[in-house]
Amino acid sequence: MSDILRIPGNVPTRSWGSAYKDFVWALGMSDDFSLGFEEQARRAFDALDRGLAAAGTDRTRLINVQVYLYDIGRKGEFDRWWADWIGDEPQHWPMRSCVQVTFAGNNKIELLAVAARPDPDGDPDSDPDGGGG
Q: Cβ–Cβ contacts within 10 Å for residue 13, how many?
């Protein structure tokens, strides 16, 4: 018995995301590392949207996103795509960090997000699992 929701991934031993009570952790990355940076970024955003939806939330409820790039020199390009994806509403803007990492293979980007799940009854003070915290 588990009260943790696991969102299956396509790699053995790993999930694309998890949810516990009001919180969701989700990963966005491309499913095709042969693609260029822009297309991998687009697919990472799409994957993150799917993971959030599978856990019952969406990008408007993001709390934090950690962006991992293969080349920090391309952060300006990414920032433009990010702005298009996240939208113009400041209430939907999460805290965000962006760092350069060395990936295995030809992966160019990963997004690691934390989001809030809405209460199914619309009561922001209630515990959706009834566990008192």
A: 5
